[in-house]
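Practice problem 4.
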């Protein structure tokens, strides 16, 4: 039996990178997948790949910085599949993610929060009743070492991702009684484009979304991770060895 047979998963930010890799892997493991993205062409490509491989998926155009679109997207998934078991939040806006502290604008910071912790919160709230009804709901949020390590040049991205980590911990405590696990993944991967030089780690390479990161997200979504919540898993090639957590 496939690990996610019978499950329905929403992947926000599934049009590229880690979200795309996760959507394809979840579908291969038997989940019905809702591919959420802002870009219709990316959605169409991911859904086409999933269906060509024998999986099941629907595409949902959604700007996750818009509360009404989030509500509509969740309603569309429930109408199509009748339930939600898994929510994966991977969305972010790479065009505003990098800045020094000195040059950081409030507008740029706000965009990172709108696409990160605020969007993740709204998606979590909208999906919560269905995840609770599932009896074994799973939420996996994407954080980053950018905030944990105080990486130079990643001020807005790091600040927003640390807020995601805090949201994850609090939700894990509050929603555990609802049978929902809430965890955080902090990867080092080619999320900004494979042409960027690798960030320093033991293996001297950025992680592969398909081979290094999506399988970790799958684990957290699976039955095997049912006793893990409020945690941050770090598929980062050892970049955060000895870092405070």
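Answer key:
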């Amino acid at each position: 039996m496939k690990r996610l047979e019978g499950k329905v998963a929403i992947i926000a930010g599934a049009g590229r990178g880690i979200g795309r890799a996760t959507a394809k892997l979840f579908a291969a493991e038997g989940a019905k997948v809702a591919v959420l993205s802002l870009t219709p062409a990316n959605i169409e490509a991911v859904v086409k790949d999933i269906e060509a491989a024998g999986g099941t998926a629907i595409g949902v155009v959604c700007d996750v910085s818009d509360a009404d679109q989030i509500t509509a997207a969740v309603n569309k998934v429930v109408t199509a599949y009748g339930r939600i078991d898994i929510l994966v939040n991977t969305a972010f806006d790479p065009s505003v993610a990098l800045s020094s502290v000195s040059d950081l604008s409030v507008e740029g910071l706000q965009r990172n929060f709108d696409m990160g912790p605020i969007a993740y919160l709204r998606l979590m709230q909208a999906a919560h009743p269905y995840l609770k009804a599932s009896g074994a709901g799973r939420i996996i949020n994407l954080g980053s070492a950018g905030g944990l390590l105080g990486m130079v040049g990643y001020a807005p991205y790091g600040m927003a991702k640390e807020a995601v980590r805090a949201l994850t911990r609090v939700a894990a405590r509050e929603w555990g009684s609802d049978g929902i696990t809430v965890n955080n993944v902090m990867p080092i991967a080619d999320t900004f484009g494979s042409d960027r030089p690798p960030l320093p780690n033991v293996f001297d390479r950025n992680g592969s979304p398909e081979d290094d990161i999506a399988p970790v997200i799958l684990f957290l979504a699976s039955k095997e991770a049912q006793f893990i919540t409020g945690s941050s898993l770090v598929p980062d090639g050892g970049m955060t060895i000895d870092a405070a957590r």
